[in-house]
Amino acid sequence: MLSQRLNAFFQGYLVAMVKGARSEELLNRGIAGGVVFWDIDKKAPGTILFKVHARQYAKLRPFFFRTGTKGKILRKKGWPFLWRRVWRKKGWLLGMALFLSMLLTLSSFIWFIEVTGVETLDPNLIRHHLAVLGLAPGVPRRTITPQRDWLIRELRIRLPEVVWVTIRLRGVVAEVVVAEKRLPPPVDDGPRNMVAAKDGLITEIILLEGIPLVRVGDMVSHGDLLILGETTRVHLDGSVEKKKVKAAGEVRARVWYEIEVDEPLAVLEPRVTGGQKTVYRLRLGNRLLTLFSRGAVAPESFVCQDRAVKRILPGRNSLSLVELIKDTYQTVEWTTVQIPPETALLNARKKAESRIGTVLPAGVRPEKTQEDWSLQAGVLHYRLIIETKENIAVPD
């Protein structure tokens, strides 16, 4: 059965229809005359669909006249008809062949060089070394593929700042991945002093090296010298030897931080007065089209009360490609609402407490807190004072 259908495809066949009271007689006469039919389907009384070889359809023409039926060719299928339709578009075929050949030719070259993994090195410097070694935009892939290992070795020799490098060929892109050397931070072994990083009242001094210049109970400011990077040694003969050293130790102090919050005692709030307007919009990518609207509101006094979005066609990214947006607007009237001082104080206290974590350094906890507030010109001025104990000594 499969071989017969393949034979019919390569020879060409017709999907035809015969109509008339003697349609069955037509098929019988055709079979008697050597015509081969298949896929015979009787659609209605006197109407039959069938398939026949294209070269055998001419044998049926005398039988149409003798039986008083009418035949009609519905579709022409098979390789001869397909080739005839394709041959009529020789220009299109030639253009497609040229396009494919040009595409295949261009895809066999390297056109882009991407450098990834660099932090301090200049990517253009790496591209320059690759161009000298023979890897540049426009180079055939067939010349780079066998030299890939050689290029990697030569590039590592030319770039002593890297510890690892590889070259990946992906289509028309040559991706160069490098890993730079990470040198340890330089160690400063020279003499140094310890100074105050912030203002504070000294409560404890832990000296490891150097000469302390402050005492417990002293009030210091930012930048004051706390521990001098120097040691003094008295010899038996009474001579004094001074030596520069690296000061080390901790100077713990009481430090204060302030957080100020202004909370209004009167605010404007919208009150819905009754008017309402609904607008339907269609978003196509980055374009927003207004479809229609219902209702009316005063243009100088409305706010967007509600928005409903229905995704119609999702996009490739997080944003949808097509969305139906429904915006509901309502007429409002702005009224002044007085806030009691107790409520304003509670709001200010909550805001200040939420900012404590952003004011204090990491790992430092408050020891004491103190607050005060005042009312001036319709505003509650709130101040939160936080006391901590921390090491304020840092290298100079």
What does this structure look like?
The protein has 396 residues and is an alpha+beta fold. The chain folds into five domains: 2-83, Alpha-Beta Plaits (2-Layer Sandwich); 109-180, Ubiquitin-like (UB roll) (Roll), CATH 3.10.20; 194-252, no CATH class; 260-264 and 339-395, no CATH class; 272-333, no CATH class. It contains ten helices and 24 strands. It has helices spanning 2-11, 23-32, 61-67, 79-87, 90-106, 123-133, 141-144, 148-158, 341-354, 356-359, and strands at 13-19, 37-44, 47-53, 70-77, 109-110, 112-116, 139-140, 162-170, 173-180, 194-196, 200-209, 211-212, 219-220, 225-228, 230-234, 240-244, 248-264, 266-284, 287-296, 302-314, 320-338, 368-376, 379-391, 393-395. The strands form seven sheets. A five-stranded antiparallel beta sheet has the order 13-11-17-23-22, with helices on one face. A four-stranded antiparallel beta sheet has the order 2-3-1-4. The longest helix is centred in the N-terminal third of the chain and has 17 residues, at 90-106.
Write the layout of secondary structure elements.
Elements: H1 2-11, E1 13-19, H2 23-32, E2 37-44, E3 47-53, H3 61-67, E4 70-77, H4 79-87, H5 90-106, E5 109-110, E6 112-116, H6 123-133, E7 139-140, H7 141-144, H8 148-158, E8 162-170, E9 173-180, E10 194-196, E11 200-209, E12 211-212, E13 219-220, E14 225-228, E15 230-234, E16 240-244, E17 248-264, E18 266-284, E19 287-296, E20 302-314, E21 320-338, H9 341-354, H10 356-359, E22 368-376, E23 379-391, E24 393-395
Parallel strand pairs: 6-9
Antiparallel strand pairs: 1-3, 1-4, 2-3, 5-7, 8-9, 10-14, 10-24, 11-13, 11-17, 12-14, 15-16, 17-23, 18-19, 18-21, 20-21, 22-23
Helix pairs in contact: 6-8
Pfam family, one: YqfD
Organism: Capillibacterium thermochitinicola
Protein name: Sporulation protein YqfD
